[in-house]
Amino acid sequence: MITTVAVAVYRPVVLPVRRLARAAQRMSGGDLSARVQLQGRDELAQLVTTFNEMASALENKVSELEQMEARARKFADDVSHELRTPLTAMTAVAGILHEHPGLTGDAATAGRLVQQEVEHLNRLVEDLIEISRFDAGTAQLVTDETGIASAVSQCLRARGWSDVRTDVPAGVTARLDRRRFDVILANLVGNALRHGGPPVTVTARIQADGRGAGQLALEVRDHGNGLPLTAIPHLFERFYKADTARTRSEGSGLGLAIARENARLHGGDIHAGNHPDGGAVFTVNLPLNA
Ligand SMILES: Nc1ncnc2c1ncn2[C@@H]1O[C@H](COP(=O)(O)OP(=O)(O)O)[C@@H](O)[C@H]1O
Ligand SMILES: [Mg+2]
């Protein structure tokens, strides 16, 4: 008797509720195609219908958003590539123009300005192309066993940053993409020099990653005013600049976004904070075997 009653209640109520729960779980796990089969005409069936309608609406909306995003990304990529060719020509002309002996006074100043702005545009376009490679999922790692001390000193030497202090033990090595490592470090040191203040130090060591393996911990520290606390959560967003008073042409605002994408491509990350004694500290963690 008890079993009969139990079965009688179980079937029409518990089963559909379970199915609903499972479908909801699948949806929250990212499978938006989850639907529940409709049975009967009671309130539960009504609930199932509403659930299915909601699921369809959500699936359509997400797919619409994905298509819009893909179009926006393709647009940014196309525009950047289209700009490259005329910019190359403009760079050449602006380079000759600003050194032209016939240009004096205001005209010379204008020539220099044009050259600076073209350079700025060039950097912006190169950064945009770099970012769109990450968005398109075409960014690839080319890894090599790398001595960190020499990678750091090469990065600094190539940019004439002779007054940056380094503290990297000779034996520290990691398997990583050298070009991308250089991009990360150059962005962070460039920021420390431009937005922070001297002295700027780069340190690297191997440390435990908390999961039983080792990781590379690279730190770039400066002695400037540090990062405004309200800015820290946004620093890695595209086009974000904490200091709005800075002149427009100084940076693209994409540097930290690109640096983080590069670190994440390695399976690592970058964190920003302030040192208790003042100045900003950016820490890059990279697995030893990317
Ligand atoms: N070392 C630093 N000290 C103070 N502010 C910094 C530092 N590094 C980055 N920032 C802030 O973070 C912003 C974003 O940096 P980034 O993405 O490299 O863009 P950009 O350098 O082109 O402005 C900078 O505009 C600056 O306001
Ligand atoms: Mg920068």
Give the gist of this structure.
The protein is α+β, with helices and mostly antiparallel strands. The mean pLDDT is 90. The protein has helices at 2-28, 43-98, 105-136, 148-158, 178-194, 255-265; strands spanning 143-147, 165-167, 173-177, 201-208, 214-221, 269-274, 280-287.
Structure description:
The chain has 290 residues and is α+β, with helices and mostly antiparallel strands. The protein folds into two domains: 1-139; 143-287, Heat Shock Protein 90, CATH 3.30.565.10. The chain has helices spanning 2-28, 43-98, 105-136, 148-158, 178-194, 255-265, and strands at 143-147, 165-167, 173-177, 201-208, 214-221, 269-274, 280-287. Helix 1 (2-28) packs parallel to helix 2, helix 3 packs parallel to helix 6 (255-265) and helix 5 packs antiparallel against helix 6. The chain is extended, with a radius of gyration of 27 Å. The structure holds adenosine-5'-diphosphate (ADP) and magnesium ion. Magnesium ion binds next to helix 5. Magnesium ion is lined by residues 187, 190-191, 251, 255.
